[in-house]
Amino acid sequence: MLTGLSDAGRTQLRTYYRQIRGTEAESGTGLEPLTDGGRAEFQEALEDPAISGQTLAQFRRQTDDETWRELLDRDVCNSPCESTIRSVYQYTKDSDGLDPDEAKKLLNAYGKADEVSLGPGSSSSSAVQEQIDELAENDVEGVTDAMADVSASKSGFKQIAGEVDAAKQIFSEDNEIGSADIEMQNVVRDIQNAPNSKTEIDIDVDGDITVNGKKLESPSIESKNYNPEEYSGFLVKKESRDLIDKFVTQSRSRVGKDSFVVVTTDEYLDKLKDLGQTNQIRNTVQRRTSSDIEIEFTTYGELGD
């Protein structure tokens, strides 16, 4: 059980076991009974970088649901919490996988799932993790990078939920796109004569897909898992300007993209259209690149159709 823990981690977990068994804890550990402070101390033990995924999963199995949720002070990952935690920490075992801090951030982002009522991720974080696992099992490149890029926040959860949903939609027999034809979180650096010196392609597709009846050759997919109620007209236009800079940068990078797809929620796409932003984005990118770059806007539900 304690294999792989630091000395501090061993002390904290042994102390916790003494407390739930009704025996006196060692003094000086800083882990009092299950008060609010005790939960905070225990969370620090769980966040110890030396605690392996196997240790966490074993500990969860030996802890009843009520105690587990008291300790975490919330249901981190909806139901089933245990399998989601175990799944995330499996990605820490590989040398090129998540580091413990990245896994912690992802789980904290999953803790915000209940705040999402629209778009990918609105069902549960466990459903998002299942999509991640399926993409990883099919050897889609960059899945771990997409997980590592998540911030411990609601926006971080929506980011990963949208990206994996879009990747799953593209990775289908209908599009004749295989796992080797998709790369998530493709980072391109050292870009010259562009708005940005670095850019991230959410989903880089090597092959043709059809969007809105148009055949696009190896497009860059940009996921915008947004709820329009959270974006004023000012913020929508700011997001559009950032998107324009991103597309211009990618067109001038070594990957030389000349077709783009913005995939978002139905509601946010309606707002983009109402504010005239779809045409604004398309026309501005074409003008600044002096080319007939193709930009299509669609929704998560329609991307795979």
**Element string (H = helix, E = strand):** HHHHHHHHHEEEEEHEHHEH
Which structural class fits the helix and strand makeup?
A: alpha/beta
Share of helix, binned = 40-55%
* Shape, principal axes of CA atoms: globular
Number of helices: 13
Low-confidence stretches: 1-5, 20-39, 48-55, 67-80
- Would you count the extended β strands for me? 7
| N- to C-terminal distance | 48 Å
Give Rg in angstroms: 22 Å
- Strand-residue proportion: 5-15%
Largest sheet, order of strands side by side? Answer: 1-2-5-6-7
Mean pLDDT: 80
Characterize the main sheet.
Answer: 5 strands, mixed
Question: Describe it for me?
Answer:
The protein has 13 helices and seven strands. The strands form two sheets. Strands 1-2-5-6-7 form a five-stranded mixed β-sheet, sandwiched between helices. The longest helix is centred in the last third of the chain and has 20 residues, at 233-252. The model is unreliable at 1-5, 20-39, 48-55 and 67-80 (pLDDT under 50). The protein is 48% helix and 13% strand. The chain is an alpha/beta fold. Helix 3 (53-61) packs antiparallel against helix 5 (81-90).
